[in-house]
């Protein structure tokens, strides 16, 4: 009689979680599209001044219901509702709409983000970025590559670009003001990266990280992030051959900040962000 190694059992179970994550990301995306560019959409302000809508809350409710039905022992942490503890050792991290500001202004670059953490290590084992308005999705399970799909086309292996320096690359960020909010002096980091890059744009949030993972951009930087913003990014970037790190270069989703690169430009970027 043979037994399956624990690591293979975990991978098999997490593969099932990935399939669910992909399925419900699409469902949440379709839900949000009902509100997208709707002139009657009501926008509220949370305590920190950031916007929230019925689309954010309804999408997270949908995600939570589907997860609880399929994996009732898993924990769930989302942006809009209190954490649900679990006992399985796996925790789902949800951002029902990453980029609510673009969403409420009708910009089709918002995303739905889903990740699952191994609670023993605190590290994500899988991630999904779904961009419902543009019809794109990228997903990754650690050890199994990152895969990109556009519309009804077959999924293809995601791969970062081969650009060797920022002077050849596209630098993205979600919000230039985030650099100043972090520390007024940190604005210099933004301008330094902008000057070094061939092109810079603010096609940010989850969509910007997907751009790096599929080789359309070389660098995406956030000066401030929450766990639900970051959790899905590390497995996707790393499985696509790139990096996701803190400003000091630590490969973590818990730093409250983020740098995604194609790997080749990482040292050049860290020379500007370390110690800031």
TrEMBL record:
Mg(2+) binds at residues 79, 95, 97-98, 229. Keywords: Hydrolase, Magnesium, Metal-binding. One of its GO terms (molecular function) is histidinol-phosphatase activity. Its EC number is 3.1.3.15. CDD domains: Bacterial_IMPase_like_1. PANTHER family: 3'(2'),5'-BISPHOSPHATE NUCLEOTIDASE (PTHR43200:SF6), PHOSPHATASE (PTHR43200). This is Histidinol-phosphatase. It comes from the Bacteria. It comes from Botrimarina hoheduenensis. Belongs to the inositol monophosphatase superfamily. GO terms for biological process: L-histidine biosynthetic process. Its cofactor is Mg(2+). The keyword Hydrolase applies. Gene3D superfamilies: 3.40.190.80, Fructose-1,6-Bisphosphatase, subunit A, domain 1.
């Amino acid at each position: 009689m043979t037994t399956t190694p624990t690591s293979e059992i975990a991978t098999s179970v997490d593969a099932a979680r990935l399939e669910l994550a992909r399925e419900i990301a699409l469902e949440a995306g379709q839900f949000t599209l009902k509100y997208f560019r709707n002139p009657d959409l009501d926008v509220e302000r949370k305590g920190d001044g950031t916007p929230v809508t019925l689309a954010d809350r309804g999408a997270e409710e949908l995600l939570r219901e589907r997860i609880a039905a399929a994996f009732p022992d898993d924990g769930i942490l989302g942006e809009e509702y209190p954490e649900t503890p679990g006992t399985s050792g796996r925790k789902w991290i949800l951002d029902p709409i990453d980029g609510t500001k673009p969403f409420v202004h009708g910009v089709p670059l918002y995303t739905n983000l889903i990740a699952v953490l191994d609670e023993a290590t605190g590290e994500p084992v899988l991630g999904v970025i779904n961009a419902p308005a543009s019809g794109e999705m990228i997903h990754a399970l650690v050890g199994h590559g990152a895969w990109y799909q556009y519309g009804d086309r077959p999924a293809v292996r995601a791969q970062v670009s081969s650009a060797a320096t920022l002077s050849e690359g596209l630098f993205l960020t979600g919000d230039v003001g985030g650099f100043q909010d972090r520390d007024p002096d940190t604005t210099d980091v933004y301008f330094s990266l902008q000057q070094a890059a061939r092109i810079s744009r603010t096609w940010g949030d989850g969509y910007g990280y997907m751009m790096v993972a599929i080789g359309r951009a070389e660098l995406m930087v956030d000066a401030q992030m929450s766990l639900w913003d970051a959790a899905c990014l590390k497995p996707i970037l790393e499985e696509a051959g790139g990096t996701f790190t803190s400003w000091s270069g630590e490969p973590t989703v818990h730093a409250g900040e983020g740098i995604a690169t194609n790997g080749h430009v990482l040292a050049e970027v860290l020379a500007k962000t370390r110690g800031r």
